[in-house]
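Comment on the following before class.
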Amino acid sequence: MLPPLSVLDLSLIVEGGSAAEALRNTLDLARHCEALGYRRYWVAEHHNMDGVASSATAVLVGQIAAATQTIRVGSGGVMLPNHAPLVIAEQFGTLATLYPGRIDLGLGRAPGTDRLTMRALRRHLDAAGEEDGFPRDVVELQAYLDDARPDQAVRAIPGMGTKVPIWLLGSSLFSAQLAAYLGLPFAFASHFAPDLLDQALEVYRATYRPSERWPKPHAMVGTNVIVAPTDDEAAMLFTSVQQRFLGMQRGRRGPLPRPITPAQMEELWSPAEKAGVMRMLACAAAGAPSTVRSQLEAIVARTGADELIVATGVHEHALRRRSYELLATLA
């Protein structure tokens, strides 16, 4: 049996499409997934990427929450080193005030972009400072969203008292250890960096310190999933994701490519590039519903995931909607 399923949407700009189309598709898909019973709908902060339209994450979260009624909406995640904690507390405090009980705040410590864009974001570029500063910023942000203290000179208005649920995101042991120490839920970015997944979850659970809101650990595992009526069709649709990850290997990030045949994919990459892409996509499932069920059950059996968050990189929006429909039947 599969755990609860959630959605990770990068508002992908597809080859031949536009950012406006990507954002319209995000709102449509959010309504669709709400009707299908998915638990959460998260969008992720990226910058200066031709293929991703979710850069203004808090704005997009608000639009999705306004377009839906019940599904939890949040960030997967906000890259906290890019922002002052007070600003994020005010943004998500406003969202939680407008949509009480529906907003999640996932936090990451990566920049979500390149170094030149980091400078444009006014981000501090000292790596050591980032590692030292992230835990401090998380604690500061928590304080802004908690009940105000009598001696608190700076408050988030709106924000204080909303107690927006904070999640930590990561692809290494650092965020797993911090989430365990602070008693927070943890989402592992295994949809693109699965190498340390098992080790990070082991550390997270072994060192977890219970908190008032989260008395026991809660681990979410990210995975790429494409479901189609047949294995062959899913394999062809999956080539869009494979081409995108191949672009990452080659240092190019563009719109989501149109699918090609698996045979054409074999001609596109070298053996070393294929191995690199397949390593990045080790936590993925593609096929007919029965095939995907088996693949996801194996991931859950291995990781003990309390929740799966699913990214579906399908070029054609109608087929992406269909993939989430077919996946929902497996829950």
